[in-house]
Amino acid sequence: MAVFNIRCLALAVLVIAGIVISGGQVSAQSCQGDIQGLISQCAQYVGKSGPKTPPSQGCCTVVQKADVPCVCKSITKEVEQIISMEKVVYVAQYCGKTIPHGMKCGSYTVPMV
Fold it and tell me: Can you give the residue range of the structural domain that contains 10?
């Protein structure tokens, strides 16, 4: 069960990282590598439980290269039950990625500051 939660969290992280990194639209298949990298490097920073924690350099490296629009299109309701979209935005901003206000990622809309 813990392995399932970690994998779901990793998938959510990948989707979020894609949102943060890029503005171009790409098919979901072309951002699979972004999602896998986000899962492996950033999952622990975007889970629903626990406080916001500054991400690692490895996580930031993946976030900075991710195709955000592609990843956002891949976010499902199931993923949103596992990750905190607020934490995703926090991680992206911490890593120097700007996510436009009003951008839709899954069912989440990035709020105005």
Answer: 2-109
